[in-house]
Write a structure and sequence with these properties.
By secondary structure, the chain is α+β, with helices and mostly antiparallel strands. The protein has a domain of 71 residues: Winged helix-like DNA-binding domain superfamily/Winged helix DNA-binding domain (Arc Repressor Mutant, subunit A), CATH 1.10.10. It is 40% helix and 11% strand. It has five helices and four strands. A four-stranded mixed sheet has the order 2-3-1-4. β2 and β3 form a beta hairpin. α3 crosses α5. The termini are far apart.
Length: 150
């Protein structure tokens, strides 16, 4: 029991000896060394995105005029072709298009925009076709010829 009491007393009191690994280091160099180690440990956030391919918004009235010019040329426009022609962000383009055009949801011109009837002036001068560059290769409306095999 005496041995056990001595061990407990020594554990509570602690050792009075102190061992320094390096006596010549001051706190400043130690903190610089730690900073270098953590700098390599923590990876910085990625570089900010470049603004090279970003589309700058033009004023709303100029975009509406540009869209009316497009609809004067062709009746139906896919979003891809309008985006290429106007060089505007898609969200901004959709916001303005909802005011002056309607999205065709079915039929042969599905997923294309058509100007609202209140803005149409002279229909005979426009082509009743889809704008170039907006057709998908997947949309093949022609049915293949079926042959009976006996």
């Amino acid at each position: 029991m005496r041995f056990r009491d001595l061990r407990i007393k020594e554990a509570v009191r602690g050792k009075e000896e102190r061992t320094n690994i390096s006596n010549d280091l001051n706190d400043h160099t130690l903190s610089l060394n730690l900073h270098k180690r953590f700098k390599n440990f923590i990876k910085p956030a990625g570089a900010p995105r470049t603004q090279i391919n970003k589309a700058a918004r033009i004023p709303r009235n100029e975009l509406i005029d540009l869209l009316h010019q497009c609809f004067d040329e062709y009746t139906y426009w896919p979003m891809k072709a309008l985006k290429a022609r106007t060089k505007q962000p898609e969200a901004y383009l959709k916001e303005v298009l909802q005011e002056i055009a309607v999205l065709i949801k079915g039929g042969s011109f599905a997923s294309n925009w058509k100007r609202q009837a209140i803005y149409d002036r002279d229909i005979s001068s426009r082509e009743e076709a889809i704008a170039p560059g907006g057709e998908d290769e997947d949309d093949n409306d022609e049915e293949p010829e079926m042959v009976d095999v006996i």
